[in-house]
Amino acid sequence: MYLIVGLGNPGRNYVGTRHNIGFEAVDTLCAKFDIKMNKEKFRAVCGEGRIAGEKVLVAKPQTFMNLSGESVREIRDWYDIEENHILVIYDDISLPVGKLRMREKGSAGGHNGVKNIIYQLETDVFPRIKLGIGAPEHPGYDVKDYVLGKFSKEEVKILIPTVIRAAEATETWIAKGAQTAMNQFNG
After folding, report:
1. Range of the domain at 77
2. 64: annotated binding-site residue?
3. Would you say 112 is a known binding-site residue?
4. What are phi and psi of 98, to 5 degrees?
């Protein structure tokens, strides 16, 4: 079984914000593979289905971003999922808007949701897809305000193909492995 986690914050106030691009990517993935996100368990909204012939559980933690690892750990422990079968999709302020980068492991890079997942899983060795949201144009701009801000119409146009590519990268990761997915989708 594979676990695919999209990071974001629950509630209407956060829909369309930069920090919720992980939720958007998971929604796109679920639409592509007809996975219904109709269960609430492990402090997450979840759906089960198949991608590339493999059973998957897709989750959107409802713990708020900074405690996402608690939900991920509960799911991992319940289903006994190996870390290399856990894919986390989230926003990255260090990448330009629309850029996608997949990694097999690594630090949190300042992302508090990922930091909590690393803490809860006690490892940084799990695959992830980082989706570029750009950085504030002004150096003094508060990062929290930026990531909780909404995308502009121009940014949305750039990001639509990016979340579709994230779904494709996820399918490739499951079907052919992380190395193939990274070679194909990292640009």
Report:
1. 2-185
2. yes
3. yes
4. 95, -10
